[in-house]
Amino acid sequence: MNLIIDIGNTRSKIVLFCDGEPQEAVAVASGLCDVVQQMCAKYPVEVIAWSAVGRIPDGFEQMLSAMDCPVVRLEWNTPISFNHKYQTPEGMGADRVAADIAAVAYSPGCNVLVIDAGTCITYDLLWADGPYIGGNIAPGMQMRLQAMHDHTAALPLISAQGPLPDYGHDTDTAMRCGVVWGMRGEIAAEVERYNSLIPNLKVWITGGDELNLAEYVKGEVNVDKYLVARGLNLVCEEYLQRIKIVQ
Fold it and tell me: What CA–CA distances, in Å, run from 206 to 117, 169, 209, 239?
């Protein structure tokens, strides 16, 4: 069994994999160390793989160093990741790297577009043979709602959850509709644009924002909320394979 830890900007996701598939998943805003220790006590974990784009909790790395199993951290320059044609690869979040690793592995022979709708919306393009060629970054749902509140005198900070009519009929629904319908249209337009530029393109959507995005995109779309975790699990599997080769 492999334990996957994805430390994000707002939450940390912990996923247990067995035979390549997620068996148990937990998302926490705090108490990450406690959850990891509980999972390791409950299951026979062989390898831990982790990545972080958010703040690493105090004591987290020290806790991992005391584990009885190997621990691998995925970063932009980890040797097992793909080649970059990005001019600032050090600025690429490890969660994006993980999602891209998985998308390429599960899309043999295809060019790949990975869309991750989280704190930010990221768009990553990769050729069929693996090199990362670039992508875009846009504000995510909560960031857009927060920005409208922060940069106006009267607009409230509203929840992303709530009524979503075709058009707003009060301040809350007007803001929510503007953000959610805007994101749906934006992502649909980006997929259409990339499909016109790049042949044989396979599209993946992941991330924490539940927007039913695939419904508004033309053509086939693969939706997998575990895409980042799957990439980190592949890191575990490659690490185990290296150990077997050495032995």
Answer: 6, 30, 9, 25
Q: Do residues 142 and 157 touch, judged by C-beta distance below 8 A? A: no
Task: Scan for tokens 């690493």, then name that residue.
Answer: 56
**CA dist., res. 22 & res. 84, Å (int):** 28
The Cα–Cα gap between 161 and 27 comes to 18
Give the residue from 85, 75, 71 showing the smallest Cα distance to 36: 71
Q: Does 90 have pLDDT greater than 80?
A: no
- Domains in the chain: how many in total? 2
One domain for residues 41 and 78: yes
Per the structure, the complete domain to which residue 62 belongs is given by: 2-109+229-246
Reduced to 3 states, what is the DSSP secondary structure of residue 91? helix
Q: 55 and 26, same structural domain?
A: yes
Q: Which amino acid is at 54?
A: G
pLDDT at position 216: 86
Per-residue H/E/C for 93-107? CHHHHHHHHHHHHCC
Q: Which residue has the tokens 């319908």?
A: 181
Q: Per-residue DSSP letters for 88-146? A: -GGGS-HHHHHHHHHHHHTSTTSEEEEEEESSEEEEEEE-TTS-EEEEEEEE-HHHHHH
Alpha-carbon distance 204 to 185, whole Å? 16
Catalytic residue list: 95
DSSP state of 56: P
Q: What CATH number does the domain containing 45 carry? A: 3.30.420.40
Q: How far apart are the first and last CA of the chain?
A: 20
Q: What is the pTM (predicted TM-score) of this model?
A: 0.88
Structure token pair of residue 99: 């999602």
